[in-house]
């Protein structure tokens, strides 16, 4: 967790995840960059922490968040899977 924040209790961590999942569910058309950024910030993760969790480089995550990169499906899945998320196609 980012050192600038106090450590969250397990209940607070779960509440943040549930809030994030609810937001994503209510907005199914969100761009991947926004989902990645919102996930990282809502869970109080630094780029380095997100990188360690997902095995995606800090540079790539930063580029995706700033909409300067278009990740492959494999990279998108690596960024979403640790948080219980996955990509999908909706009508």
UniProtKB/TrEMBL annotation:
Superkingdom assignment: Bacteria
SUPFAM superfamilies cross-referenced by the UniProt entry: lambda repressor-like DNA-binding domains (SSF47413)
Domain HTH cro/C1-type: 36-90
An example molecular function term from Gene Ontology annotations: DNA binding
Pfam family, one: HTH_3
SMART domains on file: HTH_XRE
Name of this protein: Helix-turn-helix domain-containing protein
Organism encoding this protein: Alcanivorax sediminis
């Amino acid at each position: 967790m980012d050192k600038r924040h106090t450590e969250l209790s397990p209940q607070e961590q779960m509440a943040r995840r549930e809030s994030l999942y609810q937001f994503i569910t209510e907005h199914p058309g969100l761009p991947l960059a926004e989902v990645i950024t919102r996930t990282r910030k809502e869970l109080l993760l630094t780029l380095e922490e997100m990188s360690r969790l997902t095995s995606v480089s800090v540079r790539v995550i930063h580029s995706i968040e700033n909409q300067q990169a278009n990740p492959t499906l494999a990279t998108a899945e690596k960024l979403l899977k640790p948080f219980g998320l996955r990509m999908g196609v909706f009508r």
